[in-house]
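Supplementary notes (optional reading)

For those who missed the lab, this is the record we used. Protein: Lysozyme. Length: 373 residues.
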Amino acid sequence: MQAGDVAIFMVVAGVTPYSHVAIFDSDAGSGYGWFLGQNQGGANGAYNLVKIPYSTTYPTAFRPKVFKNAVTVIGNIGLNKGDYFIDVSAYQQADLTATCQQAGTTKTIIKVSESLAWLSDRHQQQANTSDPIGYYHFGRFGGDSNLAQREADLFLSNLPTKKVSYLVIDYEDSASADKEANTNAVIAFMDKIANAGYKPVYYSYKPFTLNNIDYQQIIAKYPNSIWIAGYPDYEVRTEPLWEFFPSMDGVRWWQFTSVGVAGGLDKNIVLLADDSSKVDIPKIDKPQSQLTFNQKLDTNTKLDNSNVPYYEATLRTDYYVESKPNASSADKEFIKAGTRVRVYEKVNGWSRINASQSDQWVEDKYLSNATQV
């Protein structure tokens, strides 16, 4: 929504006791907006400015003609700890108005380019219909620093016109076998971004980063520049489950789900405000499981990711492990029949084995002779 839009509210007990019409003022963050109207928040007959969740509005809103073809250019929005934002690519619609309303935030990071061969056909309109905080490039340069700089030049020369502070290198594929070369190439890309006057950010997921990048070198040069992805599952998540935070040094933002809305949408939370230098991760004690040992072994049982194994079992047959549940990985690691493995997580009939952050998953039906550790 943009300032001046007219919204119609449903009756929701404890939130909007009266059906009413109100004018949208501004986004309040965390799925809420500021609305000016009458009969709001239980104040019968009064006109006031009230913070109300977008979820209580009907799906359509009226935009006055004077605003209909106008573009509200904001850009470069300051980020506070706890703010949400979404990241989008050409898979999403060019007009993000409805997407942002559904996600409960207008803040976005938008994909601009990939490798040297692809440019988005909708990044400018996506920027026009949201409040971008940054833009991103999907890198395919592996460990080639010269290619990384060329990709950065392509990225920088094709940015939308809305001003932002952050530019992101998305590095989650095409890594070379040389970890040091990969790290140098990523830093070369980030150097180009920094020299152009932007704040560079590195995006990936934790296992890929630990396997292919010396990320301590990145945060030594660009402190608190990590945007990390890590999901508890693939159910719709509108808020993070903190016990699944992929803890690392230097994390600024966390992509906590790829299903922020039904049908799929990456949603993120800000851990470090723009004017702060300290990341504060909530400490949440994971409740102790009350399941019996036999219940833990049941194929349908879900076990949260744990640093301590739930049990040990034997592979009944030679097995090529997958990188995640229900995957069909190209490079599969072979484990011989009879090997004893430890289970650290269970999801939909699949078990994560050998370490809490491993990329090794086995179907439960191939495990037998389980014993407590």
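If you only remember one thing from this example: Residues 179-195 form the longest helix (17 residues).
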